[in-house]
Amino acid sequence: MLKFLKIGILSLFFCTLTFAKSYVLENQNQLVEKTVGFIEILSNEVYEKTGVSLYVVALENLGNKSIQEQEQLFTQNLKSPYVLLFFTHFEKKINIIASPEAEKMFDKKEVYWDYIIPLIPNKDDGLTPQSISAFLLNGFVDIADRIATYHNVELEHSFPKQNKGVQIAVRTLLYVMLFVILLLFVFVYLRRK
Questions:
Q1: Cα 52 from Cα 74, distance rounded (Å)
Q2: Domain that includes residue 75, residue range
Q3: Most buried of 36, 179, 183, 188, CB within 10 angstroms?
Q4: Residue 105, SS3 per DSSP
């Protein structure tokens, strides 16, 4: 009986792995394994809570296909709503492809310019799996957060949000302190004369 129970549990485990949905459709050694694992966890949570599938493709190069052909190859079997973050190293191309339903949930240009581009290294030799993982993950997490906000749900596995109110208060306090120090300096300088 114990033997059959062990076989049953192992069978269930392997079936779960076999039929689990993979959200990293292709990774040609561009992303580090920890990033791939995090993308899978966050994508699964976003799908469960919003019904939107988030995918990543990270290619070394396009091969003998154009970027449009490669993107079409990966998007042709995806069910709407979906978002695909597409990257190719050699050609240095990044694209955010979204189904019409998902496109309404966030601004692709904001994600691209505010969360991906600032982290891209200036030199080609800086495009390591670690740096690629950093800028793709940063954009990916922002997309997930925007979709969650659109659906009014909270994500457990996302990065902590920066509290803008605290940032504004700290910045204001620093400016006030700088102004007071400047006034004291002027007061002391004028008093000496």
A1: 16
A2: 22-161
A3: 36
A4: coil
Angle of the 33-50 helix axis to the 129-150 helix axis, nearest 10 = 10
| Sign of the torsion angle spanned by Cα atoms 128, 29, 112, 157 | negative
DSSP state of 24: E
C-beta of residue 89 within 8 angstroms of C-beta of residue 61: yes
Q: The whole model's pTM is what?
A: 0.71
Residue 57 counted as domain residue: yes
CATH number for the domain that contains residue 145:
3.10.310.50
Q: What is the chain's Cα-based Rg? A: 23
Sole residue written with tokens 């059959």: 4
Q: What is the DSSP letter of 81?
A: S
Tell me if 147 is assigned to some domain.
yes
β-pairing verdict for 53-59 and 24-27: parallel
pLDDT digit string (tens) for 135-175? 899 899 999 999 999 999 988 877 665 555 556 666 777 77
Sign of the four-CA dihedral 147, 152, 158, 162:
positive
Residues 97 and 57: their CA atoms lie apart, in Å, by 11
Q: How far apart are CA 183 and CA 187, in angstroms?
A: 6
pLDDT at 180: 83
